Amino acid sequence: MKRTLVVGVDGSPGSRAAADWAAREAERRNLHLHVVHAWLWQPLAVPVVQDRGAEARRAQEILEETEAELTRRHPRLALTAEVVPDVPVPALLRSAKEAEMLVLGSRGYGAVAGFLLGSYGQQLIAAAECPVVSVRAGQGRAVSAADGAEVVVGQQGGVEESAEVLRFAFEEAAARRVPLRVVRAWSLPPVYGYSPGSLGIADRLGGLQPYEKAALEQALEPWRSRYPEVEAVARVEQGSAGHALLAAASDAGLLVVGRRVRDAVLGSRIGSVAHAVLHHAACPVAVVPHR
């Protein structure tokens, strides 16, 4: 089965930036690129003239224009394109079911509601089974100059909890041949925040800062062994994870964060850290689901 990267497009500047980023990413990782435009005829219950044929033609034109532009810029890229007759969220989730990643565009307003599919962006990030990359308008071709910039990833929890996020980040750094900066943020817990056993270990290590450094190094150990070519720089910061990651990623080419998958959840949730960096990061952001 061919390994695929899916990008959603709608003709907007944000989606064009996402398509350009996705094409370069597909070339870099030797993936097949599948371009998807979701369109479904939905008659309005208001007295407005609608032309189903014209709307269908415009949907096809958006797809063909995107496909032609990507083929012109990336002639060796394996590329397919499809108009999916459905509303955006289920259309893209279905298309990305077996994909390596899903790429979305943002209008660049700095809000999750600014994704290429409007309010659908948060739903897609919260529900996708694969990593989702958000690219703002202006970050497509412009970010090609930052392809040599490092990848930044946020690490939290233990070895197993952060495995999927670190795997994705190391893969990205290896494919780009750039350093990887790994950031673990911590805050002083309330009295009941750590178990007596954890606090005992922290005391033996000389305090919470060395304890956090040891946890970070332990999480990194298997990935450093698997990707010896990647220069991984570990950094522990006290304070907000969102602030620490945004500061570390000010000149990054890609910022990677995790999203915990929950079996039962009310509404769409992507986590406070992912929400913060999607609002404010200056570079593309990859949100990786993990247990």
TrEMBL record:
Gene3D superfamilies associated with the record: HUPs
Location of the UspA domain: 3-136, 158-289
InterPro entries registered for this protein in UniProt: Rossmann-like_a/b/a_fold, Universal_stress_UspA, UspA
A Pfam short name: Usp
Domain of life: Bacteria
Family under the similarity heading: Belongs to the universal stress protein A family.
Protein name as it appears in the record: Universal stress protein
Organism: Streptomyces erythrochromogenes
